Amino acid sequence: MSKWFSKGTNNVMPNANESISGIATSLQRPDAAEKVCGTFEYSSDLVANNMLWGGTLRSPHPSARIVEINVENARGIQGVATALTANDLPGKPNYGLLMSDQPVLADEFVRFEGEPVALVAAADPEICRRALAAIEISYELLEPLTDPERAEDSPAVFPGGNVIRRVPIERGDPEASGDVVVEGVYEVGMQDQAFLGPESGVAVPNEDGSIDLYVATQGLHQDHAQLAPCLGLPGEKVRIHLAGVGGAFGGREDFSVHAHACFLALNTRRPVKMSYLRDESFRGHLHRHPARMWYRHHARKSGKLVKVEARILLDGGAYASSSSAVAGNAARFACGPYRVPNVSVEAICVRTNNHPCGAMRGFGAVQACYGHESQMDKLAKKLGMDPLEIRFINALQTGDRLPTGQKVHVPAPVRECLEAAAAVPLPGESSDNVDGYGLPGGAGRTADRSRIRRGVGFAVGYKNLAYSEGYDDNARVRCCLKDGKLTITSAAAEIGQGFVTVARQIAHEVLGVEDIALHPANTSDIGSAGSSAASRQTYMSGKAIELACRQIAQRVCEACGENWKVNAKQLSLANGRVRSEDGRFDVKLAEACGDPIETEVFHSHRQTFGMDKATGQGDTDASWIFGAQRAVVDVDLDLGLIRVVQITTGQDVGRAINPLSVIGQIEGGISQGLGLAVMEEVLSQDGVVQNGSFTDYLVPTFADMPPVEVTLIEKPEDGAPFGAKGVGETPSLSSTPAIAAAIRAATGLELPRVPIRPEQIALA
Amino acid sequence: MEIERRYELLINGKECKVESSWLGESLMYVLRERLGLWGTKNACEQGECGSCSVLIDGMLACSCLELAATAVGVDITTVEGLGAPDNMTDIQQSFIDEGAVQCGFCTPGLVVAVHDLLLSNPAPSGQEIKEALAGNLCRCTGYGRIEAAVVKVVQQRHE
């Protein structure tokens, strides 16, 4: 176990270093200088010669039939190049990550507020806006289905019915019961990824009929697989290039401007730029699934869990996206990282006329974590036990079986994560309260000190690493060593997470090369790396780089053995040189072997399998990541305002390849968990979003974030790249329930719903 | 409507001609789309996120809330006017050293805001840093490394 305290007195931050270093050093981001100077090119900063601006007309209604649509007025406006509707679509009308159900442009029906209906390309954004406003549409309004509880019994929102997926897990004795039973109903609101860089990109048509799309995305090849059919083009005529990505968090798994910009560009034969404003961003990407969860936990007097029953209802909104995988996760992680001998769980994801939901950091597991951790606290309370103690008693370990029957074959440091979070001393009463600024209410200084109560809460969660349930998960990487310089070609999307450092560090560790370049990510120069999602790129593409570099190292040694008549087995690579064990052979890498050495690796993780349709049993996951948090929260009982005073966390990372980046991931993930706990929710009224702006959808600011004390639990996983698991998602799993638990401890209230709002405390 | 009259803006000490624009175009839009100063970022366009922060006559402002045509005759400083990759300010270097950059979309605005903060308050307390930068949203970092970067600059300047 290693400790990197990110704040506070024991400040032993890793050294920021000068040159490329290997594993466990905090290599600086190669893109950082451009980013701090404003010269890094994001997708919204792109321009092309003779470029048009594209815009999208979206439905103001959550459910309606399009009776008539007339774009002639728009086409007649000076400066407008084209206005298009579903009638003009060149190829397959629908797309989708796991199911092709989302229309590129609505044809007969619109199924959510914000569904794209028509497109315009014009000389500039202002003409574009006016042209969009000039499009005449007559809608026949239909009653929207907005309550997910009613979805199963309501007319189908989309052909095929309103159940996207039902996932049962049945294990052990259904009749089993314990000495104590606790029951609860919990709710999680709809969270938004709220990345800062707007959805944007430029599509550039070519004379040969092909098209190049420069876009901010998480997965180039998954976009490509969906896009080419929609454009009616063969795959080789569509090339997608990664443009600078301003954050993602799951919100760039699905199309944004992709098909629309290409469609307009092909139609006008001119480059087309599209860039959403924030209100369109809230309508133009998918959100985190809201959930309603019923739980019943059975335990012995000793605190040992006997059985967990759960029903989890997820609102998928109008289109499927990744909903079926989210439902699978919600079911599999419903019980939390505990040994549970008897399980009866059902997760169900339904269609409604609400905004579609898809991927967001920790998907499925975030919702479930709020449910199971609320239940564990309830159980502890009923048994008169300490919340930590009940978690220790039931903590999952390597070798245990999960509710799916799968055996945990990787390090599972559940107890260690909790212990690390608990080990940091609690903050003093007034440590953060200089001038009262640090009290709930902040700079407004509204709080009356005598009415502040402090609470402490714990939570622990876990999630699968990489894709699961038999879904092909692989990554392709090509590495080329030439003149002592290494070029890595990968389509892995850098979305801010730091793949650009991890890739170099892994290569440096194996080859000892300083000069490492990453070829720009696109779909034409290399096969798929999979999406930058599910905490998987270090684990998958990082591993592929490690394997490729090991092959190159071996070939370098063999070539040296042959060229210089030395024993290849005694050679090793370090610091840009090839050396023999006895030191008699010591040659610069650039001189050691003449020809470029190139190798391509296709890496798959261990095979996974689907869940049995009736029992949910199966070896579904490649690995898991665990994390625990302790939250200390001050609550103003009168005004219902809260202030998170401190978060401490123990995170299972396997191995921290870049500790500084890992801490950045953890602190950032915690801020999103804090947001879900007390502020962030996309609010809808009859299917119409009410707060699609940063004025109304609040995300944590500098003033909202407490100090975070991070302890990395480094238990390397066999076969993972230098033991590294992933770290993207775990931090956002358990911060929400830990903060909720702390508020409950301070107030004694049940608070079964997040985000917790002031009135739930003040008016209780 | 498009305005015929050209105007000039004083940006980073240089007169920049705005050849054509629509009435009502924000300073942020003109900086980016008309003048190619892309370092000023476009994240919320309603003054909430601080990504488009610039200095106008030394005052920190969200350029998305300023009309470009009324910014004639004032001194505008954008992130490009503070430092360049081969000549970075101590603030920019500290952001890199302390891991304050992830996706980086908020970073130019934060660099401008920190520049402004340390001009008016060379030795801010932790709370003063948080309050001063609470108008700049960052979705990636949780602000911890950004605070560390500011603290480091302050320490270095007082060494």
Give a written overview of the molecule:
- The complex is a heterodimer of chains A (764) and B (159).
- In chain A, strands 4-8-2-15-12-13-14 form a seven-stranded mixed sheet, sandwiched between helices. A six-stranded mixed sheet of chain A has the order 10-19-18-17-11-34.
- Chain A is α+β, with helices and mostly antiparallel strands and 764 residues long.
- In chain A, 24% of the residues lie in helices and 26% in strands.
- Mean pLDDT of chain A is 95; it is low at 1-18.
- Chain A has three domains: 44-143 and 212-245 and 252-277, Alpha-Beta Complex (Aldehyde Oxidoreductase, domain 3); 287-468 and 610-762, Aldehyde oxidase/xanthine dehydrogenase, molybdopterin binding domain (Aldehyde Oxidoreductase, domain 4, 2-Layer Sandwich), CATH 3.30.365.10; 474-604, Aldehyde oxidase/xanthine dehydrogenase, molybdopterin binding domain (Aldehyde Oxidoreductase, domain 4).
- Chain B has helices at residues 27-34, 90-97, 107-120, 126-132, 144-157, and strands at residues 2-3, 7-11, 14-18, 21-22, 53-56, 59-62, 75-77.
- In chain B, 32% of the residues lie in helices and 16% in strands.
- In chain B, strand 5 and strand 6 (59-62) form a beta hairpin.
- The chains are: A alpha+beta (764), B alpha+beta (159).
- Chains A and B meet through helix 1 and helix 14 of A and helix 2, helix 3, helix 4 and helix 5 of B.
